[in-house]
Design a protein that fits this description.
Largest sheet: none
Strand content: under 5%
Radius of gyration: 25 Å
Low-confidence stretches: 15-26
Subcellular location: Membrane
Protein name: UbiA prenyltransferase family protein
CATH topology of the largest domain: Tetracycline Repressor, domain 2
Keywords: Membrane, Transmembrane, Transmembrane helix
Pfam families: UbiA (PF01040)
CATH class of the largest domain: Mainly Alpha
CATH superfamily of the largest domain: UbiA prenyltransferase
Helix content: over 70%
Number of domains: 2
GO molecular function, one term: transferase activity, transferring alkyl or aryl (other than methyl) groups
């Protein structure tokens, strides 16, 4: 019997070598494929608007370009971004079963991102915000507000989101809190009256938009037994509540502006006119989805214009 080379053994050795050689590359490619889905989880479209809110809060208190050189400002803006991004991921984690029906292409229900990975990402974002707050704002109200915001957002989807009107209030507080956090991180003493007014206006406008969105989602929420204001009290009652809250915020802003040149008062009144008229249009069209969409978009534009006007008003006190 002739003893020659065993071709089967050689093939097995080559195959084993090839598999082990390329395993890290496969693992790395999987991580690369997950990265866009992870970015999608944190809603990158919200990064610029969130930064604008932080910038406005800092600018009103310190209305000079030096603001962009202040470490406290950038830290406060980063903390806000981390908390906002974490809240987006938390919302997707809790809503994964609902998204399997309504948004199956989202990263979690589609399986592009594992639930464990999303949970770890949330932990990283919230922990980073907590550490930054404890390092740069130790034993202050700002640090406690970071802790309270994280806790509130973790509990929002499983608890607060299903409580009538409470969810609307929390959304308003969180959005307007972005302005307050950066403003008070920069001292919060200069232009305090102006800062407080824009915080109240943004809070009222955010609650107004949340109520309009609830009216738009009336049919789906009613079928899902989600007890929003329009589901419990009807669309007209929700519209009246939304309009009243918005009018209070606008009236407050105009009253504060009276201590500034009339140009500021006129500017605020003109900037607020789209959201004031759009809510009336919504009522005329029985809160159709299209009219609500126009009203929400109009409110967003009005807020942006008001941000510019308030930032300009802050420079007048230099």
């Amino acid at each position: 019997m002739t003893i020659g080379p065993n071709h089967n053994i050689e093939r097995n050795i080559r195959h084993s070598y090839t598999v082990h050689k390329h395993q890290p590359t496969i693992h790395f490619n999987e991580k690369q494929r997950q990265l866009p889905s992870l970015i999608q989880l944190i809603r990158p479209v919200n990064i610029v608007p969130t930064f604008m809110l932080s910038f406005m809060g800092g600018w009103i208190v310190q209305p000079t370009p030096i603001l962009l050189l202040e470490k406290q400002f950038w830290v406060s803006a980063l903390i806000t971004q981390l908390i906002m991004s974490g809240s987006m991921v938390v919302n997707d984690i809790y809503d994964i079963d609902v998204d399997r029906k309504n948004n199956p292409n989202r990263p979690l229900p589609s399986g592009k991102v594992k639930l464990v990975t999303a949970t770890v990402l949330t932990g990283i974002l919230f922990t980073s915000a907590f550490i930054l707050g404890s390092v740069y704002f130790p034993n202050t109200k700002l640090f406690y507000s970071v802790f309270a915001s994280i806790l509130m957002l973790i509990l929002y989807t499983p608890f607060f989101k299903r409580i009538c009107f409470v969810k609307n209030l929390i959304c308003g507080f969180i959005v307007s809190g972005s302005i307050a956090f950066s403003g008070f991180a920069m001292g919060g003493q200069n232009n305090l009256k102006l800062l407080s007014s824009i915080i109240r206006l943004v809070c009222a406008s955010s609650i107004h938009m949340e109520l309009l969105n609830d009216i738009r989602d009336y049919d789906g929420d009613k079928l899902s037994n989600i007890f929003t204001v329009p589901v419990l009290f009807g669309k007209p009652a929700a519209g009246i509540m939304s309009k009243t809250i918005l009018y209070i915020g606008v009236f407050d802003a105009i009253m504060v502006s009276l201590s500034y040149p009339l140009l500021i008062t006129y500017g605020i009144a003109i900037a607020c006119s789209p959201m004031l008229t759009n809510i009336i249009v919504c009522e005329l069209y029985d809160f159709s989805k299209e009219s609500v969409k126009i009203a929400v978009n109009g409110t967003t534009v009005s807020l942006f214009l008001n941000m510019i006007i308030f930032c300009y008003a802050a420079t007048l006190n230099l």
